[in-house]
Specification:
Chain A: It is a multi-pass membrane protein. The structure holds two protein chains of two kinds. By secondary structure, chain A is mainly alpha-helical. Chain A is built from twelve helices and no strands. The longest helix of chain A is centred in the first third of the chain and has 30 residues. By secondary structure, chain B is of the alpha+beta class. In chain B, 19% of the residues lie in helices and 21% in strands. In chain B, strands 1, 4, 5, 8, 9, 10, 12 and 13 form an eight-stranded mixed sheet that branches. In chain B, strands 3-2-11-6-7 form a five-stranded mixed sheet. Chain B is globular. Classes of the chains: A mainly alpha, B alpha+beta. Chains A and B meet through helix 4 and helix 6 of A and loops of B.
Chain lengths: 207, 309
């Protein structure tokens, strides 16, 4: 096990994180192409919207997994975390855009009424809003300007943001379905691992 | 026959069969296989008679009606029924008719269909999830059947039940809903001429994913009321058990009439989107009683539709 982790870590050291910015958006382009050409079935708008949202959630859950993977398995994906998070945010932006423009046809009256009155939309929107300052302060310059301690505190907003995203999914399905439950459970486990090691984490950051 | 009709559609407004067959041919592209299967379908048609109850709106493509379905017995995904429903045995098929009827019994489907005149009914279809379609059903009026079996004077409701056969219906192995799926109507709703039992689609036998071999279609109610693959019809004097209503009474009422003014608690019902209109489909306003207000509003005179949703 340790050997596999070592080999993986060594191999990953040779991969530039910027590869993710090129590769990760490709599925979005492919789905859009399918949507244009009838490959997404009878309801391409809903299909596109769901795929974008699900991909965004998967990437953001992967971001939450980076720290536990390092702590418990020694797998070091830290260099990729920012790219994963920004691409995840990119998918959530596309998901939101698809909802606003394709699904809701920019019917702002109905859009604002839905944000205010439909819990799953309120929750999803709140998650998105929490991510905006994180995306805006993702550059090295922003980290320097804020200082590491303050930057770290601000970026704890990622925890509630992903949790809200997973709740958003659970709240929108009809009846009891597996997938949203699995995403929410994964998010909760990844967050709980942080609570458990919270004290140790703080000691390390103080060193 | 013209007596009760006050709609503004004319006979000449109905899309001629050849026109939609041509449209399907175009959709199928130049593929020779597609054209061949269409020709086959046209030959094997059920020969349903056109009906004055049909809308003149262009029907949704066969491909979309048969690939985007809610039929949780085969899975909760929209594509699951088209993939899984082939396992379903629909021959032999019988329907048990019991309760407050004069001639109860278990009827073979062939006997039920003997002597009925199959009509093509092109109806708007509105799902509670805010998507819609225009569907050329083939069927007959439910009241024809109810009159044949004889409704007792004390009957007030009709209850329906879907087949439950887990070995052929993989979705029923999990308790997503309280199986078997059940639905119900008030007797006057069931006797309305718009309410049909459908056995076909696009002049062909009903595909399994659409509720073969026999299903209910109530075009002014949300789609889940139109129960599929019926094995039992019971006349009762009490309001029947309805699956979605029991699963979540706040979200799914017994009546579940299409109503743009009464929202689902989690989403607006003011607008809807037609399936099959592509990536740039526009939302259209949802019509009261799904556009059948003139025909059915009288059934609910004096009722508060916000309370009886």
């Amino acid at each position: 096990m340790g050997r596999i982790v070592d080999l993986t870590n060594r191999a990953l050291r040779r991969v530039a994180p910027s590869v993710l910015y090129v590769l990760a958006p490709l599925p979005a382009g492919w789905w859009l192409w399918q949507g244009f050409t009838g490959g997404l079935g009878a309801e391409p708008i809903r299909a596109l919207e769901q795929r974008l949202g699900e991909a965004g959630l998967q990437l953001l859950i992967a971001v939450l997994a980076v720290t536990p993977l390092r702590r418990y398995l020694g797998l070091n994906l830290l260099r990729f975390r920012r790219a994963l998070a920004l691409v995840g945010f990119f998918y959530i932006c596309l998901h939101l855009l698809a909802w606003l423009a394709l699904d809701m046809n920019l019917l702002w009256g109905q859009i604002f009424a839905d944000i205010a009155r439909r819990p799953y939309i309120t929750v999803g929107m709140l998650g998105f809003v929490l991510m905006v300052p994180l995306a805006l302060t993702s550059s090295d310059r922003a980290i320097r300007r804020l200082g590491p301690a303050q930057w770290r505190r601000l970026h704890r907003l990622a925890y509630p943001a992903v949790l809200l995203g997973a709740c958003h999914y659970l709240l929108l399905v009809k009846g009891w379905q597996w997938e949203p439950v699995i995403y929410l459970a994964a998010t909760c486990v990844l967050l709980a691992l942080r609570l458990e090691t919270g004290a140790g984490g703080r000691r390390r950051s103080a060193q | 026959m013209a007596g009760g009709w006050k709609g503004d559609q004319r006979w000449s407004d109905v899309t001629p069969k050849q026109a939609w067959l041509d449209r399907r041919a175009l959709l199928a592209g130049a593929g020779a296989a597609g054209l061949a299967s269409l020709a086959g379908a046209a030959v094997a048609g059920l020969g349903a008679k056109p009906s004055r109850w049909s809308t003149d709106e262009p029907p949704t493509a066969y491909e979309h009606i048969t690939s985007y379905n809610n039929f949780y017995e085969f899975g909760t995904g929209k594509e699951d029924p088209a993939r899984e429903a082939h396992r379903l045995t629909i021959d032999p098929w019988s329907v048990r008719i019991d309760g407050l009827v004069e001639r109860p019994g278990t009827y073979d489907l062939g006997d039920l269909l003997k002597g009925v005149t199959l009509e093509e009914r092109i109806y708007r279809f509105r799902c509670v999830e805010a998507w819609s379609a225009v569907i050329p059903w083939v069927g007959f009026e439910l009241r024809d059947l109810l009159n044949r079996v004889g409704v007792s004077p004390s009957a007030k409701y009709v209850a329906f039940e879907t087949l439950l056969r887990p070995e052929e219906m993989p979705g029923t192995r999990r308790r997503v809903l309280d199986w078997p799926y059940r639905e119900g109507l008030r007797l006057d709703e069931a006797m309305h001429p718009l309410t049909i039992l459908a056995t076909g689609l696009y002049d062909e036998p009903l595909p399994k994913q659409n509720g073969a071999p026999i299903r209910l279609v109530v075009p002014w109610k949300y789609g889940f009321k139109s129960i599929k693959s019926i094995v039992r019809i019971t006349l009762t004097d009490t309001q029947p058990y309805c699956t979605w209503n029991q699963a979540n009474p706040r979200e799914y009422g017994f009546y579940s009439n299409v109503n743009p003014n009464v929202d689902h608690p989690r989403w607006s019902q003011a607008t809807e989107r037609r399936i099959g209109e592509g990536l740039f489909a526009r939302r259209r306003p949802t019509l009261m009683f799904n556009g059948y207000e003139k025909e059915v509003a009288g059934l609910y005179a004096g009722m508060d539709l916000r309370k009886f949703y």
